[in-house]
Amino acid sequence: MSDRAERLGAYRAKRDPGATPEPGMAPGEGASEDPGDLPRFVVQEHHARRLHWDFRLEREGVLVSWAVPKGIPPDPKRNHLAVHVEDHPLDYIDFAGEIPAGSYGAGTVKIWDSGTYETHKFREDEVMVTLHGERVHGRYVLFRTRGKDWMIHRMDPPEDPDREPVPTALEPMKARTGELPKGEDGWAFEIKWDGVRALLYAEGGTIHLEARSGNDITARYPELRGIGRALGSHEALIDGEVVAFDDQGRPDFGLLQRRMHLASESAVRKRMTDTPVAYMAFDLLHLDGRPTVGLPYTERRELLESLGLEGASWRTPAYHPGDGQALLDASREQGLEGIVAKRTDSRYEPGRRSGAWIKVKNVRRQEVVVGGWLPGQGSRSGRLGALLAGVYEDRDNERRLRYVGRVGTGFNEAELGRLGDLLKPLARETSPFSAGARPPREANFCEPELVAEVGFAEWTRTGTLRAPRYLGLRDDKPAREVEAEPVGTTAKPAGEVPG
């Protein structure tokens, strides 16, 4: 083994002693050893360019160190990558603070755990220790796989035997459309965000976003990746909505359309500057190995707020107990879509449209399934003229698509072209509509896969939409879930100014 000064050469070579507050920059510094019987360890949470955890073991006058991108594994079923890095001075075991921008490893360093350890093996390619920390206890082995890449594995049973993994393929809870509850006691009220519903899975400082359709939409919204850094070592499943805001700070589904359907990374990067988005977190379904869906709404909200999710591109909006009418009036005055009433004692029911959540709309809007199109005429000749819309209903023990009218306004030139390209490969000979009025004779039909959102004036007596206007596609929602929603008495026809 080299002496301590030589072993710290790589550490010092990467750092400017005049710029960084890190210890051990000069020969003779960073050499204090603990006189205790057992050597020490530390796990530091390092918010550098990428969040990671630095695992350091006191050994022969230095801290032997690994960078662990996903943190120390709490369960033997999961191994985590650990990248072997340069030895650090012993005084680094107590370091917490800010490494200035421009310095190596710039960012915030926090002590996540510390304690002592017992050594069972300490070889060039394998290290086996038992940790005695405040958070981490038990036997671990680190073994080299190639070069500087190692793996860290927990050898003992799980740190928490009752810990449950984050559930996968979960469907968000849904709200019914209706009126404000007659008695507001026992209810809380939230703004209804005019965006895309998304479950956020967070683990080891990283996230992925899943739409209601089950599609992974993480790549569309790079600015939301910082939520993983904000959550740190927390393992969480959060329910919320991806929202774009207009110049007045109001949610705007039309603006969000610019981001929803982008496929290439370069296109996403370009749109991030002129159409930024934010994630509005409003429920918590799982936290650090514990499911929270069975807890009352108010307890889930308290846990969610304790995570402190308030950043440039993410927020935890307030909820308002027993203040529904005032919030609805305020939302109408500001031109917002509406509010959601939630029973304060309600549990979270994945995939269920429950009466415990009621959405109260200010404007008449409806999701529809695209079952075909009409060819354009005049200035639209040779292109799309109108979409043929439908909703599903259960009739005679069958799930049937009912025709509810044509949607011919609300398109710009780019959207007309994009819709035409999407519809061509879905074309079919026969009508997918098996209920309602008969579509126009000149109709072209398609597989009922696309979902659009429309604003409208009213439902007619024959069950069709009067004056529907196209607002955008909703690829976050499965087509077979689309049904006619009741129209609230306070909801204004689309196009009218609320108030």
Query: In total, how many domains does the architecture comprise?
Result: 3
Structural class: mainly beta
Helical run tally = 8
In order across it, which strands form the biggest sheet? Answer: 1-2-3-4-9-8-7-6
Low-confidence stretches: none
Which second-level CATH architecture of the largest domain applies?
Answer: 2-Layer Sandwich
Concise summary:
With 499 residues, this protein is mostly beta strands. The chain is built from eight helices and 30 strands. The chain starts with a helix and ends in a 26-residue tail after the last strand.
What key phrases describe this protein's structure?
single chain; 499 residues; mainly beta; D-amino Acid Aminotransferase, Chain A, domain 1; OB fold (Dihydrolipoamide Acetyltransferase, E2P); 3 domains; eight-stranded mixed sheet; 39% strand
Question: What would your notes on this structure say?
Answer:
The structure is a single chain. The chain contains 8 helices and 30 strands. With 499 residues, it is mainly beta. It has 3 domains: 4-154, no CATH class; 174-356, 2-Layer Sandwich (D-amino Acid Aminotransferase, Chain A, domain 1), CATH 3.30.470; 365-481, Nucleic acid-binding proteins (OB fold (Dihydrolipoamide Acetyltransferase, E2P), Beta Barrel). The strands form 5 sheets. It has an 8-stranded antiparallel β-barrel with strand order 1-2-3-4-9-8-7-6. The mean pLDDT is 92.
